[in-house]
Design a protein that fits this description.
CATH topology of the largest domain in chain A: D-Maltodextrin-Binding Protein, domain 2
Helix content of chain A: 40-55%
Number of helices of chain A: 9
Number of strands of chain A: 12
Strand content of chain A: 15-25%
Oligomer: homodimer
Order of helices and strands of chain A: HHHEEHEHEHEEEEHEHEEEH
Strand order of the largest sheet of chain A: 4-3-5-12-6
Mean pLDDT of chain A: 94
Distance between the termini of chain A: 59 Å
Low-confidence stretches of chain A: none
Largest sheet of chain A: 5 strands, mixed
Number of domains of chain A: 3
CATH superfamily of the largest domain in chain A: Periplasmic binding protein-like II
Largest interface: A-B, 57 and 56 residues
Shape of chain A: rod-shaped
CATH architecture of the largest domain in chain A: 3-Layer(aba) Sandwich
Chain lengths: ~300, ~300
DNA sequence: AGCGCAGCATCGGTAAATCCTATTCAACGG
DNA sequence: CCGTTGAATAGGATTTACCGATGCTGCGCT
């Protein structure tokens, strides 16, 4: 339990600096009796007489008071530094931003976002994390992240979601598959084909919903939580897949040729969004990054 | 102007440590609504949301809040250290004591006082200063010294004076002086002799007063503010002197023989005292040193 | 020597902050 | 669906912070 206040320390140090209660009073813009009382209270609280009173000639620190005042000034500086840093954190675009991203989204956009944002705001550092939708939401709620880049699917009410862009899903086929001769693939054409499912929440339900809406009961031959593994499985001719994320180059990690075809049907698009906790008051930094993301995605082809 | 209080910081850090307002409330011994309000106020003042509220599940720091809290804990520790040190300074016998001494008294007593006191209280350091009576009083008033060891002569009302011991003045004669055959020297016997005056306030007036009270109009042949110079002058046969301070050994610095004789008359004794500013509230250290001085001088022959 | 001035302390009053108890509200777990 | 947990709100009492006005005391000036 602390027995003195920062205000008292502020007053005492000002009195020290100005050599008198009256001078400090004028400088601080508080009444002289206020300072007098504040000092008397502080002396009582710490059990030390800090100043010697000279009638009509100001005050001077006692030996013990001098020791206190030196340390008190350090404390005051410390407190002022903290205030300055904190006000800056609230109002300036600087400091650290904790950004999380859904694993399959991250490689396509996050490096560019970080690059463009930090070159606009050099005093910002961005800490990255990746995870499943679940982990992202948990992390946002737990205060581990400021923002998360994810698919706007099944978002609970307590998140503030800013849609950034929507992308049409595509069909991924082995390079030599017979359907590759089509420019657009109607989903019904895949009815008999084995399906390779990207098995991460919420993608799993999103992809199966697309197929079911088209009247298919997809035969899930294989599934994996890894985008690259799915592409590898398709590359091996083990089935087709439906994906949103489309890396550069139509080859799997192992080099098998892949074919990407638009879906002929009208289907629900994948909406990439930036999410934050609704109850969180945003710092300037967070708002600025949010605005930057909106800008950035507006420049991209959907 | 600081916009937050140490109390608020104390509360916020406790909430962080305990993971919930309720737990911190129990631990701090303050009501839960008090903490809740205190935290809300702090967040408003610094313009940052520090914690994310989880209904019925406590709170957790936000990313920005975490940065604040880490620094805030440092500040809190700093403030607690200052409080601990200051309370110790007021109540424990430790820290620094600023002691001044009248120049002619210092060599005879101060080293012993410091030695015995610091061996009793090893955590004490003593800073020494010497000066004329005038400088001592000015230093006490200005807060440069805690205490001063001096002669209790002409002490203004605003000093608290603790008499320690009184010493009879003695006559100092050249070793071969004819009066050395007397065991006690009546002052009247010095009537025609040249007088060497130790010329420091207040010693000067004290010595001349002694002679005048005995009906002598002393012929001041030489004077010096230095005790050792006075003894040297007497050693050279240039006159006699009246002194209180009696160094060990009856020789001047230069080696001339000196003779010390008690005064036969009843004369005003020199009173050594410890003085402090009356308005100063004493620390434990100062009181302890004062008591030690009283003890120490009680053991000495007067 | 007296008087004005400078500067700290005290007083009375008001606005604000602090802290309490009691209550409400929202989410989670069984 | 209900009980439990834990934060927020409401209302009220006490304490604190601050102000203006005034008192007090030593210093310097005339």
């Amino acid at each position: 339990m602390l027995r003195y206040t920062l205000r008292q320390v502020e007053h005492a140090v000002a009195i020290w600096d100005h050599g008198s209660v009256a001078a400090a009073s004028a400088h601080l813009g508080v009444a002289q009796p206020t300072l007098s009382a504040s000092l008397a209270k502080l002396e009582e609280q710490v059990g030390l007489q800090l100043f010697i009173r000279h009638h009509a000639q100001g005050v001077s620190p006692s030996p013990a008071g001098l020791a206190f005042l030196k340390e008190a000034r350090n404390l005051l500086t410390h407190a002022q530094d903290l205030q300055r840093d904190t006000l800056a954190a609230g109002t300036a675009v600087e400091g650290q931003l904790s950004l999380a991203s859904f694993a399959t989204i991250a490689p396509s956009f996050v490096p560019q976002l970080i690059k463009t944002f930090t070159s606009l705001h050099p005093k910002v550092t961005i800490r990255m994390a990746e995870g499943t939708q679940d982990e992202l939401l948990r992390g946002l709620r737990g205060g581990d992240f400021d923002l998360a880049l994810l698919y706007d699917v099944d978002m609970p009410e307590d998140f503030a979601v800013t849609p950034l862009a929507s992308f049409a899903p595509h069909v991924l086929l082995p390079g030599k598959h017979k359907l590759t001769r089509l420019k657009n693939v109607p989903l019904i054409a895949l009815k008999a084909e084995p399906f390779v499912l990207l098995d991460i929440a919420p993608s799993r339900t999103y992809f199966t919903r697309i197929l079911e809406n088209a009247g298919l009961a997809p035969k899930v031959a294989f599934s994996s939580p890894s985008l690259e593994v799915v592409r590898g499985l398709v590359g091996q001719g083990l089935g087709y897949s439906i994906l949103v994320t489309r890396p550069f180059g139509d080859h799997s990690y192992a080099g098998e040729e892949l074919a990407v075809r638009p879906i002929a049907d009208e289907v629900e698009r994948g909406v990439i969004a930036l999410a934050g906790l609704r109850q969180m008051r945003k710092t300037r930094l967070v708002s600025a990054f949010e605005a930057h993301c909106v800008d950035y995605f507006r420049t991209l082809p959907t």
